[in-house]
C-alpha cells in the first residue's frame, strides 16, 4: 500500500527527530536539560519497551501544564494550573486491594522505589479531539499489581482518584459523581505500556497533571488515565467508570482511540496537536489505538470495536 | 448627566470603539501567543462568547431604555446588533477555517453529526436578513412596518443560540455558563411579555 502524502515525513522533520533521539540517548536527558518548571527532578532511564518512545516532537512543557482536564479543580482547561496548588501530595498512600492475595496500603516513598523509573514518550489523545506528546516518567503498572498477587477471580482493575473537598474546589460542582473512578480489563492493566507515572519532562508530576501519581494508558482517550490515585482495586466485574455513568451513550468502558468510531456528537477521525505550527495548522489524522495498534491490537482481536467503544 | 453623555456627538464613535475592543484584544493575543495552548479553540469560543454578549446587550436596550427613562439608548441598538453579527460571522469563520480547514464537505459532515452545529448555523441564518437590512436605505425600501416585522426575528435568535451553547456543553454536564446566559435572555424577553400583559390589562 502506498502511504498517503500526509503520512510521509518530510526529511527535515525526520532529521530533527534523529537529533531528538540522540539527545534522549544521553542518560536522564530531560533531567539534565535546562529546568522545565519548578518541580523536583526525577531521574529515569530511557524505556526499552517497544512503542514506548514515539518519534513525535514533545509538546512544550508550558502547554502540557497549562491546558488540562482535571475536573476536581474546575471544568476550564486553565483551572487545574490555577487551582491545583491546594493539593497536598505528601504524605500520600495508595490502597491496593480487592481480588488479590496480599492487599495492602503503599506509601508513596515505597512506590517511588518499587521499580526502576523509565522515561516514555507517549502520544496523548483527548476524547475532545486534541492531542499532545508527553515524556512521562514511571514504570509499568504491572510491577505494582504483581506485588499484591491478583487471584484467579481478578478480571478488572478499578482506579480511584482523591476526592477531598478541602483540597479540590471542583468537587463542589455536580459535573460528575465523585470520587472519579476509571477501570481497565486486567489484561489491559497488565500490558507493559500501561504506565504508573510519577513524573514528566524530567521532573515529578506537576499537581495539575495528576501528582503525585497517575495512570497513563496511551492507546485510550485521555480520561481513562486517572490522576492523583488513592486506590487501585482488583475486581471480578467491570467497575463503574465516572464518564460512563454520566453519559453512557457517549463514553464507553473501553474508550480506545479509534478514528473509525465517532463520538456520538463529533467525528474522531482527526485531532489538533497542541502547539503544532500555530493557529492555521491542519488537524492531523487520528491513528487506530492512537498509533499503538502493533503493541495492543491483539488485546481486542475478534471484538466489535463499534459495540465495545 | 447620563442623558447628555448618551446624546453626545462622540457617543457613537466611542460605542464602536468599545465594541471593537474584544476583537482587538483577541487579534493581539493571537499574534503574541497569548491565547494559551489551544489558540484555535480559544479564538472560536471567545468570538462565540462575544456574539452572545452582543445579542444580549442588543436585547437589553429596550428594557433599560424604558425602565431607566433613557430614550437616547435607542441610538445604540442597531449598532450593537451589527456588532453582534460581526462577532457571529467571525465565530463561524473561525470554526470553518481553524476547525474544518475551510473544507465544505467536512463542514457538511459536521453539521450532520453535531446537532449543536446545525443550531448554530440556524442562528446565523436568522441573523443574516437582519444584518442585510440594517442600513437606513433598507428601512426605506422595506417600509417601516415591514422592516419592523422582519426584525422581530431577533426574538427567535436567543432560543437557538442558547440551545447551541447548551448542546455544546451537553455530555460534559457543564451548564453553568449556558444557564447564566439563558437566565439573562429570559429576563430580557420576559420583561417584554410582562409589559405587554400590563398594557393589555390597562
Automatic annotation (TrEMBL), chain A:
InterPro entries: MsrP (IPR022867), OxRdtase_Mopterin-bd_dom (IPR000572), OxRdtase_Mopterin-bd_sf (IPR036374)
Coiled coil: none
Reactions it catalyzes: L-methionyl-[protein] + a quinone + H2O = L-methionyl-(S)-S-oxide-[protein] + a quinol; L-methionyl-[protein] + a quinone + H2O = L-methionyl-(R)-S-oxide-[protein] + a quinol
Function: Part of the MsrPQ system that repairs oxidized periplasmic proteins containing methionine sulfoxide residues (Met-O), using respiratory chain electrons. Thus protects these proteins from oxidative-stress damage caused by reactive species of oxygen and chlorine generated by the host defense mechanisms. MsrPQ is essential for the maintenance of envelope integrity under bleach stress, rescuing a wide series of structurally unrelated periplasmic proteins from methionine oxidation.
Subunit structure comment from the entry: Heterodimer of a catalytic subunit (MsrP) and a heme-binding subunit (MsrQ).
Origin species: Inhella inkyongensis
GO molecular function: metal ion binding; molybdopterin cofactor binding; oxidoreductase activity, acting on a sulfur group of donors, quinone or similar compound as acceptor
UniProt EC number: 1.8.5.-
Domain Oxidoreductase molybdopterin-binding: 88-243
PANTHER family found in the cross-reference section: PROTEIN-METHIONINE-SULFOXIDE REDUCTASE, PROTEIN-METHIONINE-SULFOXIDE REDUCTASE CATALYTIC SUBUNIT MSRP
Classification via Pfam families: Oxidored_molyb
SUPFAM superfamilies: Oxidoreductase molybdopterin-binding domain (SSF56524)
Keyword vocabulary terms for this entry: Metal-binding, Molybdenum, Oxidoreductase, Signal
One example of a Gene Ontology biological process annotation: protein repair
Organism superkingdom: Bacteria
Family: Belongs to the MsrP family.
Keyword Signal: yes
Cofactor note (record): Binds 1 Mo-molybdopterin (Mo-MPT) cofactor per subunit.
Cofactors named for this entry: Mo-molybdopterin
Enzyme class (EC, first level): oxidoreductase
Gene from which this protein is expressed: msrP
Binding positions for Mo-molybdopterin per the UniProt entry: 68, 71-72, 126, 161, 209, 214, 225-227
Name of this protein: Protein-methionine-sulfoxide reductase catalytic subunit MsrP
From TrEMBL, chain B:
GO MF term set: electron transfer activity; FMN binding; heme binding; metal ion binding; oxidoreductase activity, acting on diphenols and related substances as donors
Top-rank lineage group of the source organism: Bacteria
GO terms under biological process: protein repair
Gene Ontology CC: one annotated term: plasma membrane
Keywords (A to Z) from UniProt: Cell membrane, Electron transport, Flavoprotein, FMN, Heme, Iron, Membrane, Metal-binding, Transmembrane, Transmembrane helix, Transport
Ferric oxidoreductase domain sequence ranges: 48-157
Localization terms from the record: Cell membrane; Membrane
Cofactors demanded by this protein: FMN; heme b
Cofactor note: Binds 1 FMN per subunit.
InterPro entries tied to this protein: Fe3_Rdtase_TM_dom, MsrQ-like
Main subcellular location: membrane
Keyword Transport in annotation: yes
Membrane topology: Multi-pass membrane protein
Function comment: Part of the MsrPQ system that repairs oxidized periplasmic proteins containing methionine sulfoxide residues (Met-O), using respiratory chain electrons. Thus protects these proteins from oxidative-stress damage caused by reactive species of oxygen and chlorine generated by the host defense mechanisms. MsrPQ is essential for the maintenance of envelope integrity under bleach stress, rescuing a wide series of structurally unrelated periplasmic proteins from methionine oxidation.
Family the entry assigns: Belongs to the MsrQ family.
Subunit structure: Heterodimer of a catalytic subunit (MsrP) and a heme-binding subunit (MsrQ).
Protein name, entry field: Protein-methionine-sulfoxide reductase heme-binding subunit MsrQ
Species in which this protein is naturally found: Inhella inkyongensis
